[in-house]
């Protein structure tokens, strides 16, 4: 049984080595089974945790080595996990004052993450070359664009949820008032022009449309 386990680990290791060598032809990348992927991701995350421990102790070089181990272990198709490892490496380089290396690491991180755009912009600003400052400006624009999209989305969702709550309250009120032949339409809020407060007024909808001008027969 022990030799069988060692054989599986050796096979997994060989797949990882092949994956590192073949990066351009995606179809040729060794395919891992779901069980193998899960095992490799767990191993990679253990390396990441070790790196985080070193990072918390300001041992950034050691942290980088652990994050690199995580990258070496994590399958290429697990892009989100690999993006995190690259982002952590970039942050370590910033702490070490190696800004160019930090930017290089951040460039391998998915650009859809606002967090890394912000970090990359900071690193490029500190590099303070024309190219780096231009890149920082583009990242800042992307961040602002992402942020500016949120207020209208929040307002829309707020209105939607408010309407849903009001609708549910009206349904509840109508069920209760229906027992008395009434509905929420029989009541309206009227603002007092003097105090600014609101009063609830009863509206007899059954009289609507009757203006009293009918003739005697």
UniProtKB/TrEMBL annotation:
Keyword Oxidoreductase belongs to the record: no
Pfam families for the chain: TPR_12
Residues of the signal peptide: none
InterPro entries in alphabetical order: TPR-like_helical_dom_sf, TPR_domain_protein, TPR_rpt
Entry keyword Transmembrane helix: no
Domain of life the protein comes from: Eukaryota
Spans of repeat TPR: 44-77
Keywords of the record: TPR repeat
Residue intervals passing through the bilayer: none
Protein name (Swiss-Prot/TrEMBL): 5595_t:CDS:1
């Amino acid at each position: 049984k022990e030799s069988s386990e060692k054989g599986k680990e050796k096979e997994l290791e060989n797949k990882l080595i092949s994956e590192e060598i073949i990066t351009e032809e995606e179809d040729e990348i060794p395919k891992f089974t779901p069980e193998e992927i899960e095992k490799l991701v767990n191993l990679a995350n253990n390396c990441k945790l070790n790196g985080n421990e070193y990072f918390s102790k300001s041992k950034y070089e050691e942290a980088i080595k652990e994050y690199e181990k995580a990258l070496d272990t994590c399958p290429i198709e697990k892009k989100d996990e690999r993006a995190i490892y690259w982002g952590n490496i970039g942050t370590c380089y910033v702490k070490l004052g190696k800004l160019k290396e930090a930017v290089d690491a951040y460039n391998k991180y998915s650009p859809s993450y606002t967090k890394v755009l912000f970090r990359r912009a900071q690193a490029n600003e500190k590099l303070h070359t024309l190219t780096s400052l231009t890149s920082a400006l583009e990242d800042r624009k992307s961040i602002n664009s992402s942020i500016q999209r949120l207020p209208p989305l929040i307002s829309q969702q707020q209105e939607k949820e408010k309407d849903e709550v009001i609708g549910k309250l009206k349904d509840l009120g109508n069920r209760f008032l229906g027992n008395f032949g009434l509905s929420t339409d029989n009541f309206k809020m009227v603002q007092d022009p003097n105090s600014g407060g609101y009063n609830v007024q009863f509206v007899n909808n059954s009289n609507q449309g009757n203006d009293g001008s009918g003739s005697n027969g």
